[in-house]
Amino acid sequence: MSDTTRNTQVAIIGGGIMGVAAQFQLAENGWTDTILFEKAELTSGSTWHAAGQIAHAVGSRIMGWINKTSIETYKRVEAETGQSIGWHEVGGFRIATTDDEVDWMKSIMGVGRLLDLPMELVGPEEVAKGNPFYKVDDVKAAVQTFEDGHIDPSGVTMALAAAARARGARIERRNRVTGASRNGNAWLLRTEQGDVLAEHVVIAAGSYANQVGEWFGLKIPSVSCLHHYLVTDTVPEFAGRPELPVVRDNAFGGYIRQEQQSGLIGIYEDHRCPTVWEMPKGAPWAAENELFDADYDSIGDFLMVAFGKMPILADLGIKRVVRGAITHTPDGGMLVGPSGAPNVWLACGSSIGLAWGGGAGKVLADWMVHGETPINTRSLDPRRHGDFATDAFIVERTRDEFMRRHDTPCPGKQFASLRPVRRHPLYDRLAAKGAVFGEIAGWERPRYFGAVGEVEQIGWGRQPWHENAKAEAMATRRAAGVIDLCAFAQFEITGRDAGRLLGRLSANRIPRKDGRISLNHLLTERGRFETEITIWRVDENRYFTGSAITRAGPDFDWIRAHIRTGEDVTMINRSANWGMLALSGPASRRILRDLTDADLSNAAFPWLSGQEIEVAGVPCYALRVSFVGELGWELHAPLDRIAELYDALFAAGEKHGLTDLGSYAFNGMRMEKAYRASAELTTDIGPFDVGLDRFVVTDGRDFVGKETLLSGAPEWELLYAELHAEGIDIHGGEPVLLGDKVVGLTTSGGYGYTVGKSLGWLFVRKGTSRDRLAVQILNATHPVTIHDTALFDPENLRPRSEE
Predict the structure, then answer these.
(1) Cα angle vertex 668, ends 664, 670, to 5°?
(2) Closest to 55 (Cα-Cα) out of 347, 356, 285, 309
(3) Which CATH class is domain 6-370?
(4) Which pLDDT does position 1 carry in this prediction?
């Protein structure tokens, strides 16, 4: 570090739409001491060559909110700065030609209603009116939108930059960051124009994110894929008429719109995904405004379908082909939020940068400045991919995502590439018994059990596997079931100060006696959910925790980040090398008694307690809890012994009717017990919003988020609902209605196989009348009945059974 080292609160690496939007939104939040470093000119990476579409017809509330926020932000900075953003508000059509696509369009209507986005579900006649040149012979339905369109990439980036500068932010073009290292509590960035010491760093480096991330010890799961769009010669029929709406059609995997007086066709091939600058190499530093040669052999068939859809373009020449690199991630979502390295944030991995930039910038700025976001953004958290994501996985799964970009996203849809990513010792056993798997954090978890080799049918309505799941649930209620939950976040936290650490993070008291278990919620400074964990006190200086596998990285980071200097705390993450089997049902004690010398009686081994025992010679952490509301134990053991444990359970359980249990049945049993899951405990609400007051203990103790939690009244309440509909269930994210007014949204649901009812959780504004509530599913309204208690075993007697 030299005497001329400059200081800044935030250094932003990358001058495309993501970096500039983040800088603007930080300035909006009062963080104006920022420097954005761009090695060339603003937009010169991928932003400049983007087609610039921004859609309202999207499949999820978070992405609809992101896109809506982007449009609102861009319009605002244009009005403020006078810099044209080239906004064409032409609306659009998203086309459906199959029954599954029609259901998708109906589900999109729910997203639109939640966010108050003007849209209509229309037939082919309306498509023909909006675009008389588009063939509608095979169109079954379409979502028509009215306030979206396309934008000039360079114009909007320059407008954001001007607005950020006006607030005091700095932008340095032609100044490449060449490296970084930790310096105390800050980051020392080396740039071509001297060293800079930054408290925070934002990596918004697009196709350079991989090699930039390495400076901070990060593996950033982002791959540069090549995408074509083509601009035709002038279209005579466009003269003298209003600009056409953007049309998106899965039939050719892309979009068609008007570009001045020409046609523009964009294509995502579903048979091949060319990538460039693959991990870990990354884009060459000398690259600037880079484009690649067209590959007509790859897109030719798709192009012919597009010409068939809009014949007036078929006989025209192609005057321009743009084939540029666009970043994608293994699941298609952005990487926005904390990276896992201290004070290093990501705003990259964006495949639809113009649509996402403004909204992503707000998410990032709120997270950095306020410690949380105004909407649940866990799907954007960069840490969601976990440490299983190798270079090979990231590249191959991202290719898969690119080629499926225009698949219909039916519920239950899974990626096929590289399966199984993580093959734990039970995989072959379960597959041989007919397990139909779903992937979670790289692990395979049985969804249900059917015929060997069976392929799951997916869709919005109730599927054939419903009967399989019902049989598993009923068998578990009658006797016992075991579910593979090896994909589970498991931490051991030890040391003289381990209890103090967990105590000041937990809204509930942690266990005060050795062997006891508690359910605890770790909150943000603003009293909202960071995560939910179970805590088992092994002894005074040793604790074991469990939580959802998707939270393994973030939860570990969160707890570790709160260890104070000088505290005696050691954390061990056992998530990758330990497994867990959950044994539940009235026969579970009888089964375990044949395999252990431990006293399993209520007196010796009460509900919500844990012990270190041996089961069939396998050392286990046995926790007496059950997420399906039955007598049961979680059996945590080294992963290399988990198959031995599983075999022993079934050998002893055969005479008792032990069955395998999949996640679909597990979820249905969870719903009829009215247990909340991660979908209900999101980052935009707190314990009092979801009726978890009994898990907040405030007397004589402090914990993170306490002051804010107690200072305000809850704005929401969570209702337990029975859905009255035939053949469909609540998935989550559907509008809740009171008459014609949207008063909330669903979070999760499922069919309660024991009680024979479709159930779900609903968030509504506090004080909303419970009478006449309904849920909009697939664009139809279905009434619900609200229940105050669980429909199965409301007194919770079965988990405490002495049988």
Answers:
(1) 115
(2) 356
(3) alpha beta
(4) 64
Give dist(CA 12, CA 23) in Å, integer: 7
CB neighbours of residue 728 within 10 Å:
20
706-749: pLDDT as tens digits:
999 999 899 999 999 999 999 999 999 999 999 999 999 999 99
**pLDDT tens digits, residue range 246-304?**
999 999 999 999 999 999 999 999 999 999 998 877 899 999 999 999 999 999 999 99
Domain boundaries, the chain: 6-370
**Residues 527/708, Cβ–Cβ less than 8 Å:** yes
- Terminal Cα-to-Cα distance of the chain (whole angstroms): 70
CB 274 within 8 A of CB 121: no
Could you tell me the two tokens for 549?
């596998």
Listed in order, strand segments (DSSP E) in 507-617 are 517-523, 529-539, 542-548, 570-573, 578-584, 610-615
Please report, for residues 40, 115, 194, 347, the alpha-carbon distance to residue 58 in angstroms, rounded to integers and kept in the order given. 33, 11, 44, 21
Residues 175-211: tens digit of each pLDDT: 999 999 999 999 999 999 999 999 999 999 999 999 9
Q: Is residue 527 within 8 Å of residue 706, measured between CB atoms? A: yes
- Are the C-beta atoms of residues 586 and 480 closer than 8 Å to each other? yes
Question: What would you measure as the largest C-alpha separation in the chain, in angstroms?
Answer: 87
Going from the C-alpha of 305 to that of each of 250, 273, 308, the distances in angstroms are: 10, 19, 5
Can you read off the two tokens belonging to residue 670? Answer: 């969870």
pLDDT for res 388? 84
- Backbone torsion region of residue 92, taken as left when φ is above 0, otherwise alpha when ψ lies between -120 and 50, otherwise beta: beta
Of the candidates 721, 719, 734, the one whose C-alpha atom is nearest the C-alpha of residue 689 is 719
Closest CA to 538 of 635, 624, 621: 621
Report whether 127 contacts 134 (CB < 8 A): yes
Contact 67, 54 (CB under 8 A): yes
Structural element, H or E, at residue 136: none
Q: 602 exposed, middle or buried (CB, 10 Å; 0-12, 13-18, 19+)? A: middle
The identity of residue 727, as a single letter, is G
Q: Nearest-CA neighbor of 659 among 435, 437, 424, 412?
A: 435
Q: What band does 372 get if pLDDT is binned at 50, 70 and 90?
A: confident
